[in-house]
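ugh ok so i messed up the first submission bc i forgot one of the chains. this is the corrected input, ALL of the components this time, i swear. 558 residues overall. if the numbers dont match what u have on ur side tell me asap before i send this to the collaborators (the ones from the other lab, u know who)
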Amino acid sequence: MEDFNPVTMFAILRESLGPWLWGLLLIALVLVVGVVSAAMKLRSARRSPKHPIIAAALAGGVATAIFFMLVPGWTMATHAALNGPVDYLAAILIAFIPGGGIAAMVFSMASWRCARRTTAVCDKSMA
Amino acid sequence: MNRRRFLLTGAALAAVNGIALSNVRAATSSAKARIVIAGAGAAGLALASRLRRQMPQAAITVIDQKTAHHFQPGFTLVGAGLWSPDDVTFRNADFMPSGADWITEAVAEFDPDSNTVATSSGRRVPYDFLFVATGLALDYERIEGMDRSLIGTNGIASIYANPPAAAASFRAIDAFVDQGGVGLFGRPTTEMKCAGAPLKVTFITDDLARRKGRRSAVKLVYNAHNPTVFSVPPVHDRVTQMFAARDIAVNFSHVLKAIDPGAKRATYETPEGVVTFDYDFIHVVPPMRAPDAVMNSPLPWQHGPLATDGWVEAEKATLRHPRYANVFAVGDIAGVPRGKTAASVKWQVPVVVDNLVAETSGKEPLATYNGYTSCPMVTAYGKAMLIEFDYNGNLTPSFPFISPLDELWVSWLIEEKGLKGAYRAMLRGLA
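and heres the new structure output, hopefully the right one now
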């Protein structure tokens, strides 16, 4: 495994994904910027992040579960092919990539919404 | 975290990352050597890419008439009906490093005594260092009655010949499963590339028949060329156990000698004499040997088990020719035990390049190759065993969390999604 250094891993990803890699990296960058700016907005508005985090966790969890069902098909296999704990772990980790993206998106949107106005779901300000 | 701590942390991470990247940067040599690489397959292109980067002032010449490049580890998935021939076909031009001189002619002759290689047009190319990476020749004609044009007809399959043949092989497998009957599998007695592939095709045929509810209509027989189905004892034991569980019969020490496509009859040599089996389907794996240009040169082994088929004489650990010190053999053509896979190339190329860089820089060449090779043994649609081993037959798993003898989806994931990207990165000298 010592051979899997960052340069090698990036080269393999680039060859595997082709131009899609740059699109995915752009999406990841947008999501990171979205999460950071939303968190800063919440902080400046002195709002609690509790409800955006709960919303993000729920959405991310559901999305991860859905993608977990889809992952074997992406490899031209079925769920019957999952044959051990390492298989389930790998499938969950792969599903977590889109699931995490959706969680980040929901967190950003919920945080901006909470920061902009007082609503029933995010009416508690930070102490 | 305040802004100052954030910036400091970022700077520290960047520094650590920089150190990590500097550790993976390879040594270089400023030698102005003339290097000839015979062959632009997996080994030839990976060599050219690494040498271009690590010996920037060397004159690198690649000789190969082929312009198409085939990702041969993917032939099994074409033969399984999952990939198309286009999925395993690249262009050599896309991987040829800039600055390398590519002569699109076949190698006609090696003359290591005068340090030259002759091409098919008669051009003589001199060298200071020669890398023989021609790959091997598929010798279908050594099986009496067999011809590669028969693949896809008369129940004959062979995924080795080329991508269209692998696709035709799937159609033959599919038709056999639908029609039922006896299916024969096996391998030649010669050294061969990807020795796991004949087993993979057997497993795939079994699984396809089960998925179609046709398993009881087909009888599958694996004819092993010697007393084992795989040269690594724990893998032999595991595959034998799996064959028994899946009702796949095994005949040991059966070598395909002839086929009669019209009568659908296969003849095998055995220790007890010649035996003949009727078949409805047969997966033919051709005997393999060195290409003519290598066979007719002084480069092959002069005696021993690797001499018959013309494999280039090479020291196991360094792949250097013992009689011609400026000649190296890499990939399928290398006369070393095992090691005829893309995974072997991935580990062989850095060894020979690092040693040449050291040697031309006045340092001692210390890199060694331990015979590492890998076979993601597909055992069903969606499952594989990630088998890796060395010269001594020791299992050498790269991932501690993946058991090499367990049928796992994660091993299939590596085969189906990971290998092609890793292979392409290897061709660019980046993996």
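quick check: Residues 92 and 354 of chain B are 24 Å apart (CA to CA). that seems consistent at least. Chain B has two domains: 34-136+290-360, 140-288.
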